[in-house]
Design brief:
By secondary structure, this protein is mainly α. It has one helix at residues 17-42. The model has no long low-confidence stretch (mean pLDDT 82).
Length: 45
């Protein structure tokens, strides 16, 4: 058992490359959306 199979990710395959890429893309796209939304709300009206 790897260290990634602990905490909130308690399922088999939590450290598979597909799960890592999928979760990283969701997190990065959410950060990008928040930056875009913040800039468009504050400056680009």
């Amino acid at each position: 058992m790897s260290d990634f199979n602990r905490g909130i990710m308690k399922f088999d395959g939590a450290d598979s490359p597909l799960a890592v890429v999928l979760s990283a893309s969701v997190i990065l796209s959410a950060i990008g959306f928040l930056i875009w939304w913040g800039l468009s709300t504050a400056y680009l009206q």
